[in-house]
Each structure stands twice: as C-alpha cells, then as structure tokens.
Amino acid sequence: MEKIGCTIHRIRIEKGLTQKEVYGKIVSRSFASRFEKGANDIGASKLFLILDNLAISADELRYIQQNYQPSPLEQALLTVMKAYAAQNFPAISQWIQEHSHSPHAYDKLVSSYASILLLAYDHSSIGITTTTRPIYLHLQQAKMWTIQELKLVNILVPIVATTKGLSALHPLTERMVANCLHYQTKWGDPFNVLNNLVEFYGTLLQTYLNFHDYQAARQLKSKITALNSHNLNWDGRLAQQFWIGIWELYFGDWTLGNELLDEVTALEKRHKPRIDNTLFAIRKLRTQAAKTYRQ
Amino acid sequence: MEKIGCTIHRIRIEKGLTQKEVYGKIVSRSFASRFEKGANDIGASKLFLILDNLAISADELRYIQQNYQPSPLEQALLTVMKAYAAQNFPAISQWIQEHSHSPHAYDKLVSSYASILLLAYDHSSIGITTTTRPIYLHLQQAKMWTIQELKLVNILVPIVATTKGLSALHPLTERMVANCLHYQTKWGDPFNVLNNLVEFYGTLLQTYLNFHDYQAARQLKSKITALNSHNLNWDGRLAQQFWIGIWELYFGDWTLGNELLDEVTALEKRHKPRIDNTLFAIRKLRTQAAKTYRQ
DNA sequence: ATGTAGACTTCGGTCGACC
DNA sequence: AGGTCGACCGAAGTCTACA
C-alpha cells in the first residue's frame, strides 16, 4: 500500500500547489518533505488540516491512496447491498458464510447487517438469530445513529412491527427523525440522510397499511410533505412523490395519486432493465388494496 | 475542538463495540484507553484502520467531531456554490473580497473557484484575471483531477470555447472522460462523478449549438446515451434525459424530444419554488432555435 | 471489559544549515 | 521552491501490572 504522504505529494503536484501553501503552519518544512517521501506517518488531526488546504476530502484521499478503490469496509457493504438490490439472497447467505471467521473486525459488522437484510426478506423462517440480535438490539437502544444505522433502520421497520407491535414504531420514528436532524446543516444535507428518511416513511406507510392501521397511515402524509424538497436530491424527491402518490390512492385524490405515480413510473419505463422493479409491484398491489379500502 | 479520540469513544460506545473489536491489532490496549481520553493524537493510517472497524467514514467522523458541521473548506465551498445556484453573483464577489486576505490557505482555492464562477457568468467583462489564471491553467494542464476539478470543469467549457476555440474542447472532453473513469469501480460510482459528466456533456451540447457546430453537437447523443443509467442516480438520469430531449429537438424525433422534456419538467413543476429554474429557460430557448435550425 | 500508572522505546516532528 | 542531513525533543505507542 502506498504511503499517505506519497499520495498527498502526487495530489499536491497535480494541483500545482507549493508545500508552503499546503503545510503552512501545520508542520515544519523539513518534515513535510520527509512525509511526502513516505518516510513518516502523520498525526490524524494534522492530516485533516492539510486536506483542507488541498481541497480534498478524507474519503477521496483514501480512495486514491488505495489505487482508486473504496475502503475494505465499503467494498464489503457494497457487495452485500448490491446482492440485496438484485434480490440475490443466496449470495448474501454465502457472503456471511465466507466471512464468518474473517480476521477483520468490520466483517462481523457487515455480517450483522447482511443478516438483517435476510431477516427483512423472510423473518418468519429465519427469525432473530444470535448473529442478528446484537445489531437488532443496538438499533433499538442506541440514541445516536451514524449513517450506516440510518441506512439500515428502514428495513428493520416490518420486523419491529411484527415482534413488538405497531406501537413500537412511534419511538423508532422519533429517533429516526431526531438522528436525521443531526445531519442537517444550514448548507443542506451533506450526507443525503433525508433520502433515507423518505424511504423510512415509505416503509412505515406500507407497514401501517399491511396492518390495517389506517389512522396512523393517514397521518403520514403531513410528515412526508413536511420534508423540504430543496434539501433532497432527485432520488429523494421521486421517492417522496411516489409515496405521496400511494397515500393519495387511499386517503386523498385518486386521480392526483395516479398522476403522481405516472410521472415517476414514466421515468422508470425509460430504463431497461428497470432501475427499481419494486415500484411497479408496489403500485399494482396498492392500487388494488386502495380500491378495496375505499369501499 | 473535541479530540478525535473522544469522538471515537462516543461512537464506539453508541455502537456497542468493545475496544478490542475496534482497536484489534492496530494499537495496544493501554494506548487505546489513553487515546479515547483525548490524551493522545493518533497516526493517520492507524486511524483509517480503526474507522473501518467502527463502520464509519473519515468524512463522517470529522463531521461529528466538529459538532455536526462540515469542514471549513466544505463550508466555504457550499456558501459559494449556494450563491451561484441562486445566481447571486454579488454575493460571490463579496465573498472573494472578504476572504482575499484570509490566513487559511484553502480560502485562496475557494477564491479561485469563485472567480471562475464569476468568469463563467460573464467572461466578456471580467476576463481572465490574475486570480483566475492559475486555476484556469491548472485545469487545462493537470492530468489528474480530483472531485473538485470534476465539479468545476463544466463551467469552464464556454470560456475555453471562446478563448481557445471549439477544437480545444476535444482534448478537454477526453480528459474529463478519462478522469471520471478513474472513479468508477465494479461497485458503481461512489462519488457520483458521472453526474458531473452528464452535466459536462450538456454544457458541451449547448456550446456547440451556440457556435453552430451542428456536426459536433450531433455526435454527442451517442456519448450521453453510452453512460449506463444504472450507474447514475436520479439526478444524473434526469439530466441525461433532459439533454437527450434537447438533442432530439434538433436532430432527432421532435415528438419524442418533447415527451422526454415534458417528463422532466412535469417533475419540476411539482416544486415551488423551482428546484432548477434554468431548465425551463433552456428548453424555451432551444425549442425556438431548433425550429429555426430544422428549416 | 476498561482505566490507570510507570518504565521504556520508537518515531513523529522541529530547527538550522547546506545544496 | 524543495530535498537532505544531523541533532535534538517531545509525543506516540508498547509492555507489565494492578485495580
């Protein structure tokens, strides 16, 4: 693996910056030279200051340093998430098997995450196992969630509803909202956590409908529309529009609902294979169910 | 500012992980303890390994450590970008003024970026100044671009076309493509640089049309469609659809073009105030120009 | 499983000078 | 502007042991 200093050297040269500009008053001139040669490591807090001067993020530095590859953790997560998106559950099982005795600590974490994905897929047959229990409990108990938790919590919703009842969803929702708020700045939503919140509301809506708690479902619209669309990207805005569309089918203007949904599915239809096939399945299912409900 | 170790301690506790799990064979047990107390800094490469075990990115760690705020560099960039998005050019000028004698090295970089934004707005009156020349030259000479450059290069297109002629756009395009390729992994596009590439092609299309180089413009469609939409997010896919729509107005199926554009603008119309007002302006302008061209 | 403390070593980091 | 060398210091980091 290339030393951090060498990577920084390359970037600095390409950017046409001098050592003085980049290292300023952070480290001495002679150390800067030895550091860029790869002879020394550097203190983390100093590195962060240097990265600011280089106008590069810590994540990108790592990515470049590792020969333009995501971190091992990212790689593991992306592999699992990709299998999940493709509904390839055997591949997830296999991944867990292969990494069950990994020397890397983060593989245990990813295994937990992967187990939850399997759990979400078919919690009746798999149930909460010893692998999934720690992270299942953690997600319920921890006050502070990081991006990883925010990404995962929405697949936990149906599981919580089944095992602890619908009432357990209220505190979960509150924590989700509170934690997403932590990641809002006056410049917007740098980590795009609001997209996860939209998806969370979507899963919540589906769950309430599945359990026939129509009153709770009805109250969700105001929460979904309350999200300022200017702080979302188009991924979030389309999800927002989709779930409002579904809501309208049940509780609002049937025509408007179909308009909203048409606009979203029209975009999907432009892409082969589909970006997200589940949208069509959900719409079909909900259209039928909404008709029944309205009678 | 809270010490890095203290932040990591909080995150570790919240995640319910033991020191052994997180620090493994990276540092000794006793050092881990002192580090989390904030008594010591830590080597950068060791920190990265620890972050993997914590399942958190370096960027997020920094964000949390700084009390849930982006890095100073990010803050500066976001401020300028926001002003640009709002077409608030006086605010950008003012920002450059206020930070022209900043002690922070990165403020010079952001000033360069901001100057280019102004340049892109009205290069006839402002011209290439001493502030903008370094970065203007840099973007043309550097082989390696980081995310920052990839974000900025598309606003440079019209400037390059005016000052160096349309032929200069070919090598620029090649470098743009090559650099975006660096950021593609087998798991997709982790930094979403392909969105920048779509926007680049859009600017390119506009520029060719403005300069009446219809042959070059006609060849752009294959490049835009060549981008696999599955590696884009919806921001990118919508931009892709929009620019293909514009292309169709000139060189392809007029009806199809309007269909594509209608789908995109229909989404825009759902949001007040508009997410991106320029879409409507561009469409209006191009519809007229395309009619003329077709005659 | 973690905090503390002392003794100890390594290496991150400075300074000055020379090229 | 930046690479290098030697001398030097303090902080990073280990080990052992006790709590």
Automatic annotation (TrEMBL), chains A, B:
Annotated ranges, domain HTH cro/C1-type: 8-61
PROSITE patterns listed in its UniProt record: HTH_CROC1
InterPro entries to which the protein is assigned, alphabetical: Cro/C1-type_HTH, HTH-type_regulator_Rgg, Lambda_DNA-bd_dom_sf
Superkingdom of the organism of origin: Bacteria
GO molecular function: DNA binding
Gene3D superfamilies: lambda repressor-like DNA-binding domains
Name under which the protein is recorded: Helix-turn-helix domain-containing protein
Organism: Pediococcus ethanolidurans
